[in-house]
Amino acid sequence: MRTKRIAVIASGRGSNFQAIIDAIKEGTVPATCIALITDNPKAYAIERAEQAKIPVIVIDYAAFASKKEYEQALLAAMQRVNPALFVLAGYMRIVGKEIVDAFSGRMINIHPALLPSFTGLHAQRQAVQYGVKVSGCTVHFVDDSLDGGPVICQQCVPVLDGDDEDALAERILAHEHRCLPEAIRLFCEDRLKIDGRRVRIR
Ligand code: GAR
């Protein structure tokens, strides 16, 4: 099968990015990762990209006078890279409407909760504080709502009595590392079809 060109956008540690790199290397995801874009010049994801010989583009959020200027620079970089798919893997900002519109159906995100519960930041903390008995992770297409685009796949984990935010985050993360490469695989195999709110898997 021909591989698809993908690019990853990440803000920090990049363990999901690493899971993607590893899955591509193992041959389970038919993709070539052509770039890492980050808003954070200190992101550990940069080292992971360098190790894997993946080009890095830093669009340093702090270097821009406004969110609007930052988003314009990010959009320009994304248009230059122009992959089949953008993967938001721990990107900690809300994506602006112009970018969402430019890459509609070509941008996915991993979120550490069972959407539509616990959108936004600190999803694992929200789950512990709410007292739910199960949580998990969701991979979804990005639209102009907050973590509200059509769902591609989800995995759930139990929330145990002694859990704090970190313990739950760690349990969920192990599932993220399987769920995200799986969603990318399905995309790259042309098996995902957005049908209203539903994502059909062919
Ligand atoms: C992951 O848990 C991811 O789901 C979450 O940030 C973490 C990044 O970890 N993303 C969000 O909360 C997005 N709102 P990583 O950098 O090790 O992949």
The neighbouring-strand order within the major sheet is: 3-2-1-4-5-6-7
N- and C-termini, Cα separation: 16 Å
CATH homologous superfamily title: Formyl transferase, N-terminal domain
Q: Give the % helix.
A: 25-40%
Major sheet characteristics: 7 strands, mixed
Question: What is the count of DSSP helices, taking H or I runs of 4+ residues?
Answer: 6
Structural Rg: 16 Å
CATH first level: which class?
Alpha Beta
Mean pLDDT comes to: 98
Could you please describe the fold and organization of this structure?
- With about 200 residues, the chain is α/β, with parallel strands linked by helices.
- The chain has a single domain (about 5-200), classed as Rossmann fold (3-Layer(aba) Sandwich), CATH 3.40.50.170.
- The protein is about 35% helix and about 25% strand.
- The protein has six helices and nine strands; from the N terminus they run βαβαβαβαβαββαββ.
- The protein has a seven-stranded mixed β-sheet, with helices on both faces. Strands 8-9 form a two-stranded antiparallel sheet.
- Helix 5 (about 125-130) packs across helix 6.
- The longest helix has 24 residues, at about 165-190.
- The mean pLDDT is about 100.
- Glycinamide ribonucleotide (GAR) binds near residues 10, 89, 123 and 173.
- The site of glycinamide ribonucleotide has 15 residues, from helix 1, strand 5 and helix 6.
Q: In brief, what are we looking at here?
A:
This protein has one domain (4-201): Rossmann fold. It contains 6 helices and 9 strands, in the order βαβαβαβαβαββαββ. It has helices at residues 15-26, 44-51, 67-81, 97-102, 123-130, 165-188, and strands at residues 4-10, 31-38, 56-58, 85-88, 107-111, 134-141, 151-158, 192-195, 198-201.
